[in-house]
Design brief:
Layout lengths: L2 H29 L5 H23 L10 H22 L5 H8 L2 H11 L7 H18 L10 H21 L1 H7 L1 H23 L11 H28 L2 H5 L4 H13 L6 H18 L7 H4 L4
Helix pairs in contact: 1-4, 1-10, 1-12, 2-3, 2-9, 2-10, 3-7, 3-9, 4-7, 4-12, 5-6, 5-7, 6-13, 8-9
């Protein structure tokens, strides 16, 4: 396939993934009062992991993980599918869906910083400017007083930012394994290790067998949406995007996450949409665009990658 078409498809996959991500932020905020973060994360990603495994065994034979890659894949699974799901659910106990989606949009800038720390991305003046722009935008947005809606919003904001660090670590370090084992296989293996970690933590610190999963039909419907399109499909699309474009390129699409969360949160949760929130979002989006200005070029080794 022509490099430009591969790049365009990568952006489409990333955009669809982040739109779904915005929906999951709102649905998590909607259901979190009926459960606890660990139990919700476990059941959501447990169902999603089963779906990914079924798809993998239908479409191909799972590749064998090389012994030298096992520890890295286990750690990636724990970071992406244990730490991130818990931190996201925990954050939405306290902060609004709009602010959660807004903080999610800082992920590409966090990816840049982590990538630069480990020499995966080169940090230059343009990227430094982008990070500063996003920091100012985030500061403006979270400075909004919303005590009547979310009195402990800053606590939730902190947990969401930690979640973005977890996603960024996965973005930076998963790329070689995505190219080596394929999207479906890596998602299956990392989901397995992440969900097993969540299960142990939920049993010890949560209450999955003592009422935290006692949903009614409406609640289970939300969980299933979070698990299948909001888990399986979202991460498969993101993994596919990372096979076609770089982490920073894929992260450009994260601007669609807060847009979805803000609009859907205002509609379903009646969350306020303020000028500070919009202004902060625009500055974060500007930072993402600045950071990607010199990155929109296809990479030959990605073009040759096969499923």
């Amino acid at each position: 396939m022509h490099p430009t078409k591969v790049m365009i498809l990568g952006f489409i996959y990333a955009s669809l993934s982040t739109i779904i991500g915005g929906v999951t932020v709102v649905l998590t905020r909607l259901i979190i009062t009926e459960t606890d973060p660990l139990s919700l994360a476990f059941i959501r990603y447990g169902i999603g992991g089963i779906a990914v495994a079924i798809i993998l065994y239908i479409v191909s034979s799972p590749p064998r993980i090389q012994s030298g890659d096992r520890i890295a894949i286990i750690l990636l699974g724990m970071v992406m599918f244990a730490a991130f799901p818990y931190l996201m659910a925990k954050s939405l106990e306290d902060t609004t869906a709009a602010r959660g989606g807004l903080l999610f949009a800082t992920m590409p800038l966090v990816t840049i910083v982590i990538g630069a720390m480990f020499k995966v991305e080169k940090l230059n003046l343009t990227k430094i400017l982008a990070v500063l722009c996003a920091m100012i935008g985030t500061s403006i947005a979270i400075s909004e007083n919303i005590d009547s809606t979310a009195p402990k919003a800053l606590v939730g904001d902190f947990f969401m930012f930690l979640g973005m660090i977890a996603v960024s670590i996965f973005n930076v370090f998963s790329r070689p394994y995505l190219l080596k084992y394929g999207n479906l296989a890596l998602m299956t293996y990392t989901l397995f290790f992440g969900v097993m970690t969540l299960f142990l933590l939920a049993v010890i610190f949560g209450a999955p067998f003592n009422g935290s999963l006692s949903f009614d039909i409406r609640g289970w419907s939300i969980v299933l949406v979070l698990a299948i399109p909001g888990g399986t499909l979202m991460f498969l699309l993101w993994g596919r995007a990372l096979r076609s474009i770089s982490p920073t390129q894929a992260a450009i699409a994260t601007g669609l996450n807060p847009v979805t969360a803000i609009l859907l949160g205002a509609w379903i949760l009646y969350e306020p949409v303020t000028f500070r929130l919009i202004g902060g979002f625009l500055l974060i989006l500007l930072g993402i665009l600045i950071s990607s200005r010199s990155k929109i070029t296809p990479e030959p080794h990605v073009i040759l990658a096969k499923d």
